[in-house]
Amino acid sequence: MKAIITATLCVFTAQASFADTTTAKQKSSFTVSGDAAVGILNNSALSVQELDDISSQSDSGVKISTGATATWQASKAVKLTSSYRFEQQNYDEYDQYDLALHQYGVDASYSINSSNELGLRYDGAKANVAGDTFLNFDQVSAYYGRFLSPQSYLRVSVKNKTKRFASATARDAEGIGADIGLYHFVNEGQTMLMASVGADNEDAEDNQYDFSGYSVNTKVTHKFTAFNLTNKLGLGWRYQLKDYDEQVSDEVFAAQQPSQPSRDEHRNVVNAFWHLDLHKHITLVTEAEYGDYESQLSSNTYTQSIVSASIKVHF
Predict the structure, then answer these.
(1) Cα(164)–Cα(127) distance, rounded to whole angstroms?
(2) Backbone phi, then psi, for 254, in 5-degree steps?
(3) Of 240 and 9, the one with more pLDDT
(4) Which of 108, 113, 270, 277 has the fewest CB atoms within 10 Å around its CB?
């Protein structure tokens, strides 16, 4: 399983908070939306990064997903949103890397005025690998959002997170973090530019997995119409540095042993997507991602390419 649960949740929260602010003046209402998708994928390097299980094997398979979001605009200023999403990847040959991911969240926001909002959010995730429970993740975040102009939105958040592993309790961890993101819309909202920076610190049960780090994310999306069909293109890049603590409990013993490399990691990931609306309720989704993962542990240094195509039904 790819180690991007936290990043995914943070980006989803930021985008949701922007949408929340734009509807803050509405009267009380309740809406529900949902989607389901099925498709195929190919992965050039199967891996469970959280357990340092990196394989040079490639495989293809089937991916499915479904999700729902319920939104209650309680008043002009108060909005509550809950969401659930299930995603599953089943590989043709190496089923030990099959992944099932449940994600759920609750967001409460309060609009101070037309330009400022405060929010509190809970996000959770449960991951199963090869049919067995692998990881439980919980995160609570508080955020502040502000429209710098009608086209620019700034969001700052702080978060507290918990990881619990079913079979690797030494990696159980508590963490804190913060991030700041800027969203800018042009072409009457058809084009979005996003940039964010974040910092994290995790304290694990086993000190060798303690780390501090930072991340940078950029993204551009663009909507347009061609041949009477709505298209959406996106391109993104993210960089993450993890600086692991080096713990030495016995200096004499350590001096007698050959030096061991630390676990420090650098991750560069580029991703792109194309959404084509075949019908107002049916979308063709194609995605591609390339990751360059470098570590001072040679076993954790590799590259990975993932491509997929899906049909999504939404309402």
Answers:
(1) 11
(2) -65, -35
(3) 240
(4) 113
